[in-house]
Amino acid sequence: MDGAVLVTGGNSGIGLECARALAKAGRHVLIASRNLAASQAAARALGSQVEALELDLGSLASVRAFARDLVSRGVPLQTLVCNAGLQFSQGPRLTVDGFESTFAVNHLGHFLLVNLLLESLARQAPARIVVVASGVHDPAMRTGMPRPAIGDWDTLAATGGATPGAFNGRLAYVNSKLCNVWFSYELQRRLEAAGFASRVTVNGWEPGLVPGSGLARDYPLPLRLIWDWLLPAVALGASRFWPSIHTASQSGGDLARMVQDPALDKVSGHYFPSHSRWREARSSDESYDVERARALWQASARMTRLAPGESPL
Ligand SMILES: NC(=O)c1ccc[n+]([C@@H]2O[C@H](COP(=O)([O-])OP(=O)(O)OC[C@H]3O[C@@H](n4cnc5c(N)ncnc54)[C@H](OP(=O)(O)O)[C@@H]3O)[C@@H](O)[C@H]2O)c1
To answer: For the whole model, what pTM was predicted?
Structure first.
């Protein structure tokens, strides 16, 4: 594989470490997020084959402009790593398009991006899409986060949850991560149906608990101190015994393996969680609900105003 790899959110945390591992392996890496200056600094530190681009997944116009630019430049895109993500303690914060930001950035923006870049990816076959989910979507993992609670899609898009007018940042995050898994399974089914499955694969992946990343930037100060300083030290020593806690470099390294490993060439529609040391394993029972996954796809296509000519699926 020698085409370009796009890592959304590649200027920080797990995405940055994934980009570092890929650059070390000689891949052409594009890192894309909102903070262009931070991405440029990261790209400079990672080496000349890393390029920084500006992308706001919370803006449908930004996603469309970004995809248009990549396609018109003829970038030979072979892998898309849907890694960017965030969570909030207060909200709902709405995007320019009026969607709750956790849902919009973690799911909706990536939904649109993947659809707009599918034809480009298919031209560089064998191509891969890796969707970064989280173990918090699965109540059986006992992560201490709330169980997913998703009612109708418009309430989810407005609040991140199931109750009109209410906001719970942890629930919005958990729900968005269930959407990531539904999206990757439904994408696989649609690739199959459209005759793309031999050219493009998609898998879900989850990094485990990776303290020290930017994910806690909106937490209250005491929690941020624990996340930024205490837990990373624990992760350094604990990951050997406890497979669900890792440093960003360990998780990012495995995410890079999802991009590179030839053994995964034909593997699609599966889930690779940290608790199984990133071997294929089951995601939550609810994530296999085909009807809900299809309905999420249809709602996402409506919300992003995905036109028939914009996606082959
Ligand atoms: N850390 C964990 O314990 C953990 C556990 C399970 C899953 N995850 C998942 O792992 C992924 C990476 O998270 P991380 O922990 O590495 O956090 P991070 O260090 O905060 O990285 C998140 C990245 O997303 C980018 N981003 C945020 N909003 C964006 C937007 N609107 N448009 C484009 N890019 C945006 C950020 O860059 P800008 O600010 O420049 O936009 C940043 O590069 C996320 O999907 C997260 O849900 C993390």
So the answer is: 0.97
